[in-house]
Structures are given as C-alpha cells and as structure tokens.
C-alpha cells in the first residue's frame, strides 16, 4: 500500500462525505469520520451526519459515540481511531479518514501526550462547576493556569480540560504537552484536500444551511433541549445548534438564527482553510471540489495506488 491511511479533508460543504464514500467503495474499505460534532448522539441534521442510504453500504466509524453533555477531545478520538485503523489494516485494507476537524487529524499524525490519571470524583466535580461558568471566565482561568494562547473562549471543551489537568495534577497543560510521552504511534497518510473558489463555497454553505432547516434542524434542537441539553452541554455549542437555542425559546426569530448560522459557518470554513494551508504537509494534494464526487474519487484512488491518469 502507498501509505498508512488515505485522508480527505476540506472546509465544510466541500463534499468530503460523498467523495470518501466513493473512494471507500472502490477500495472495499471503511470510512473513519474526523468530525468533532458527529460523535454526538441525536445531533444528526446540524452536523451533516450521513444517513444510511448516503453511506452506500460502506462501514463508517466515529458516529454517535457520546451524549451531547459529554466532552470529547482529539486525544480520545485518536485512541479510538487507532483501534479502527488497526482493524481495517488487519483485513488488508487502507482506512479512509474524512472530515473537517483538523485537530483530530493532527492527533494521529503528531500524537498527543499520554494524559495522566485524574481522580474521577474530583474531575466530575470540576466538570459540573466549570459547566456553569461563562466562556470568558473559563478563558481567564485557563490562561492563568498555562493553557495555550490559541485556545478560543468559545472552545469550552479545551479550556475546561486545561483547567482540570492543571488543578488535578499540579502541572499545566503546556507542561504535559512538552514533557509527557506520546500516547501512540504516528500515522503517515496520503492527504487530499477538497478546495472550492470562495464564491462557490459561500453559496454551498448558504444552500446547506437552508437544506438543514428544511430537513428539520429546528425540531432536532428542540428535542435535544427537551432531553436536558442546552448551551451548557459540550456538544450544543456547535454552529447550527447554539444559534437555534434562543429561537426555540422564543427569544430570536428563525430568519435571524439562519443568518447567524450562515455567518458562523462561513467564518468556520475560513478557519478550516487557514489551518489546512498552514498545518498540512507540502505533499498534500489539493483538488477542485467542483468536479463530481465519482471523478474526484477516481483521481484520489489513482494517485494513492501510484497509477497514472
């Protein structure tokens, strides 16, 4: 095989899922989702989780792993992904990883530190306390305890994790990242990036958001809230959910919420592209995602297998 794994990345709405399924069908293999929100049960429409018919009989991993109240970080993903990758390789197949969460990919190509054992009772107490704090307070705490400067106040999971590790071990998150051994071996994948002109990406994002609303996203958010998951739940600060919570409460119009979702999604896509341009290896192959999924899949398989066009 040409590499440890085959990776398909790109900004949201670039068509990664459809291309990954086509590639997996050609190689008779499995797809591993690298999406930090598709891990949550009940969050289907707003995370663009592919339905059974969209998976076309291709085995998928990485969906419906935890409840929206649970925190799920890149290290936890990497530990699970290594077991899936090992199983797929044991069958003589190459794993196809697809998604837009860059930190999930980096946790596999540049393994994170092996986290220390934390007292479960004290960790749960911290979790309950930190869940009630505003994002700005979390950020101040995390900065004071040595969290990385690039952690955003909206990223409650990473901020809370930094606080828990520092207070329960006496060492900052940055210290553990420098000094602790890696949690597992690195993978060396062939990476393909689905890229789109800015105007096309903006249009696709807008169409996608309206399609999600039409598919019942408001009802999905309402059902999750009825189950007790609100903006304090780790998964519910995702774009498409956090903007609709006030609408479900009657505090925001649907048109206003939709406009906010589109704006936030476009901002997220820009951040994804910035990360991809600066963090991927120079050997990554960029493809024009305006081409049909089957053509893109053919190109990926040819390059991965070493064939010429």
Q: How is this structure best described in words?
A:
The chain is α/β, with parallel strands linked by helices. The protein folds into 2 domains: 6-112 and 183-305, P-loop containing nucleotide triphosphate hydrolases (Rossmann fold); 120-179, Orthogonal Bundle (Histone, subunit A). 50% of the residues lie in helices and 7% in strands. The protein has 13 helices and 6 strands. The protein has helices spanning 16-27, 52-55, 74-90, 102-109, 120-131, 135-144, 156-169, 173-179, 198-214, 217-226, 245-248, 254-279, 293-305, and strands at 6-9, 31-33, 60-61, 96-98, 190-195, 285-288. It has a 6-stranded parallel sheet with strand order 3-2-4-1-5-6, sandwiched between helices. Strand 2, helix 2 (52-55) and strand 3 (60-61) form a beta-alpha-beta unit. The longest helix is centred in the last third of the chain and has 26 residues, at 254-279. The radius of gyration is 20 Å and the shape is globular.
Blueprint (SSEs and pairs):
Blueprint: E1 6-9, H1 16-27, E2 31-33, H2 52-55, E3 60-61, H3 74-90, E4 96-98, H4 102-109, H5 120-131, H6 135-144, H7 156-169, H8 173-179, E5 190-195, H9 198-214, H10 217-226, H11 245-248, H12 254-279, E6 285-288, H13 293-305
Parallel strand pairs: 1-4, 1-5, 2-3, 2-4, 5-6
Helix pairs in contact: 1-13, 3-4, 5-7, 6-7, 9-12
């Amino acid at each position: 095989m040409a590499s440890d794994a085959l990776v398909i990345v790109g900004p949201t709405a670039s068509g990664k899922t459809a291309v990954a399924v086509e590639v997996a069908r050609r190689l008779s293999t499995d797809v591993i989702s690298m999406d930090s929100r598709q891990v949550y049960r009940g969050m289907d429409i707003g995370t663009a989780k592919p339905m059974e018919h969209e998976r076309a009989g291709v085995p998928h991993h990485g969906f419906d792993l935890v409840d929206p109240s649970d925190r799920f970080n890149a290290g936890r993903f990497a530990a699970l992904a290594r077991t899936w990758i090992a199983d797929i390789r044991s069958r003589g197949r190459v794993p196809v990883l697809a998604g837009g969460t860059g930190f999930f990919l980096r946790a596999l190509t540049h393994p994170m530190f092996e986290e220390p054992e934390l007292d479960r009772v004290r960790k749960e107490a911290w979790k309950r306390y930190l869940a009630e704090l505003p994002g700005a307070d979390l950020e101040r705490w995390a900065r004071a305890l040595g969290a990385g400067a690039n952690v955003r106040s909206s990223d409650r999971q990473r901020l809370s994790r930094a606080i828990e590790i520092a207070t329960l071990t006496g060492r900052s998150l940055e210290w553990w990242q420098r000094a602790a051994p890696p949690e597992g071996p690195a993978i060396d994948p062939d990476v393909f990036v689905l890229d789109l002109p800015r105007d096309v990406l903006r249009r696709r994002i807008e169409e996608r958001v309206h399609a999600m609303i039409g598919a019942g996203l408001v009802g999905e958010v309402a059902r999750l809230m009825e189950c007790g998951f609100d903006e304090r739940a780790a998964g519910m600060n995702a774009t498409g959910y956090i903007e609709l919570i006030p609408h479900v409460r009657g505090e925001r119009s649907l048109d206003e919420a939709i406009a906010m979702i589109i704006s936030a999604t476009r901002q997220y896509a820009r951040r994804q592209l910035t990360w991809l341009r600066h963090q991927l290896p120079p050997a990554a192959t960029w493809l024009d995602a305006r081409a049909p999924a089957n053509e893109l899949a053919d190109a990926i398989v040819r390059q991965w297998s070493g064939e010429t066009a």
